[in-house]
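Suppose a classmate hands you a notebook page containing two proteins, each written out with its sequence and a corresponding row of structure tokens. How would you begin to make sense of it? This section walks through that situation. The first entry is reproduced here exactly as it would appear on such a page.
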Amino acid sequence: MAYIGSSPSYGVFDKQVETGDGSTTAFSLDYAVPSATALLVSIDGIIQEPDEAFTVGSANGTPTLTFSGAPENGARIFIVYMGRQLLVATQALSSPHIDQFSGDGSTTGFTLTRTPTAASGANLVVFVDGVYQVYGSSDDYTISGVDITFSSAPSSGTRNIQVIQLSEQNNVIDTVADGSITNVKTNFTYGSLYNTGDGSTTAFTIDSGHSVNSVIVTENGVIQRPTSDYAVSGTTLTFTTAPASGVQIGVRYLPVQG
């Protein structure tokens, strides 16, 4: 059965497709994952149980998925990376910082108490005797590390030099390389739950914090339709029709931030 429901709210779920040859059990993964439960794996449309039907690890530095038995020749294997990574925007530090110095008519160099983040002076506003100073070697001052050097010595005066740093860091979120954010940083929780049907029970207990669209439910590996085949309320998953006796019920949790 096809998956029906709202789109996952944690970005793109990357997919990888492989083909069995009847003997190969280990397949290289496109991305490293923290555990087998971070993957949704199917062989010819049948969902595989993590840590039982397959495990994940590393072979010669390459992330690897290993099946307990070799998929048949020609079998179509698809692997979905569930919530592989998440980018979270953080508030850049933007508190201004002020240094004040007293000129003596001869000193041109002064040491700042905080290193400017922009060596070009782009985040500095400098005044001498209340007059705005222009950055540049042919203008009023230059910056090198924590040192500010004026082209001519400021006149004598008490605290007549003021250097204002507008921010501690640029408000820029750099591009993040694929696979560089690990589960330790994203703090995703992954998990699965398995039960066995008895032909009469329709309600089963699951983890809290999930909805009908944040769990993937299977009966003997066949995906069930949210709302039509089951509902979720709190920590209870309720089937529309009781799973038959002996049927394996699988619940895979889509990643939610822990």
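The notebook's second entry, a different protein, reads as follows.
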Amino acid sequence: MAEFSGDPCATITPATNSADYRSTSENERIYAFNVVLWCKRGGVRTDSQAETILTDLMDSVTRTFDKYYTFGLGSPGDALALETGYTMMMVEAAPGEWFYAGREMEYRAATLTIRVHINVDVTLIASS
């Protein structure tokens, strides 16, 4: 089993993907990832301190995805550059379940689901 190397820390795992037909030339793909934020409690800090740290961290991560909703590297409106035919549309961050977990120590954790929306222009893919 892998051990966390930081505190607080995060794990990111692929969750789901889906596709939606838009027109004869365009589709939308949605890739979802679960981001779990972890904070040690007990011994290292009180339960109340862990709650406060995790709440602040969840707010910070959510606000960052709200601000850079296209994974822009410069200004928030700049989109992540993808290959021809694929256009980054938006990223949405949805806070989810909070829970307690035991690993090396007891953790307080919170899940954040990130959904990445990509427009696919099939006419550009077919011609490249």
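A careful reader of the second entry would note: The chain has two helices and four strands.
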